[in-house]
Amino acid sequence: MARKALASATNAPRLSLREPRDVTRVEEPHLLDGDHREGELYERASFDGEELAGITLQECVLQGVSLNDAELRGARFIECAFEDLFAPVFRAPRSSWRETSLRSTRWGSAELYDSRLDGVHLDGGKLDYVNFRSARLTDVLVSGCIIGELDLTGVRATRLALQDCTIGTLTLDGAQLKDADLRTSSFRGISGLDGLRGATIDEYQLQLLAPFLADSMGLRVEG
C-alpha cells in the first residue's frame, strides 16, 4: 500500500494482492510455449533462452528464477508472486499481468511494450532499462526501485505511483496519465514534459524540473 505521505486528491493504486497458497513445488520444471500452469512453485530454476510465448501462469510462485533472453511474448501472469527474478535481457512484449507482485527484480533491458498491467506491485528491484511503450497501466505501484531509464512513451496509465524510486531518465512522450503520483521519487532527467499532464509532483521535484521546463519553452534564465 502507498504510505500516508502520498494521501491527497490523487487516487492511489488499488491493490488487492495475496500470496498464492497451496502451491505445488515443481522439482524439474519444464515449460513450453502456450502452456497453462496453475498453483505451482518454481525455485532457483533457469528458463534462459527458452521459447515461452503465450504461456499462462496462474496463482504461481517464482523464486530465484532466471529468464534471461526467454521469449515471453504474449505471456499472461495472473495472481502470481515473483521474487528475485533475474534477466539481463527480459523479453515480454504484449504480455498481461494481473494482481501480481514482483519483489527484488533484477532486469537489464526489459521489453514490456504493448503490455497490460492491472493491479501490479513492482517492489525493490534494480532495472537498467524498462520499455513500457504504448502499454496500459492500471493500479500499478513501483516502489523502492533503482531504474536507469523508464520509458513510458505512449503509455496510458491510471492510478500509477512511483514511490521512493531513483530513476535516471523518465521518458513520457505522448503519455496519457491520470492519477499518476511521482512524489518521493527522484529523476536526473525527463523527456517529453507534455506527458506530465495528469501527474502529481511535490515542490522539490518542481524545482528540479524548472530547468527542463525553461528549456522546453525556450526561456533564457539569467541571474
Task: Write up this protein.
This is Pentapeptide repeat-containing protein. It comes from Arthrobacter burdickii. InterPro entries: 5peptide_repeat (IPR001646), Pentapeptide-BTB/POZ_domain (IPR051082). It holds the Pfam family Pentapeptide. The radius of gyration is 18 Å and the shape is elongated. With 223 residues, the protein is mostly beta strands. The protein starts with 23 loop residues before the first strand and ends in a 7-residue tail after the last helix. It has one helix and 19 strands. The protein has a domain at 112-218: Pectate Lyase C-like, CATH 2.160.20. Strands 1, 2, 3, 4, 5, 6, 7, 9, 11, 13, 15, 17 and 19 form a 13-stranded parallel sheet that branches. Strands 8-10-12-14-16-18 form a six-stranded parallel sheet. It has one helix at residues 203-216; strands at residues 24-25, 36-38, 40-43, 56-58, 61-63, 76-78, 81-83, 86-91, 96-103, 106-111, 116-123, 126-131, 136-143, 146-151, 156-163, 166-171, 176-181, 186-191, 199-200.
Keywords:
Pectate Lyase C-like; six-stranded parallel β-sheet; 223 residues; 1 helix
CATH class group of the domain at 112-218 = Mainly Beta
Q: What is the alpha-carbon Rg in Å?
A: 18 Å
Task: Output the helix-strand order.
Answer: EEEEEEEEEEEEEEEEEEEH
Regions with little confidence, pLDDT below 50 for 5+ residues: 1-6
Q: Beta fraction of the residues?
A: 35-45%
Number of strands: 19
Instruction: Provide a count of the helices.
Output: 1
**Form type:** elongated
The N- to C-terminal Cα distance equals 43 Å
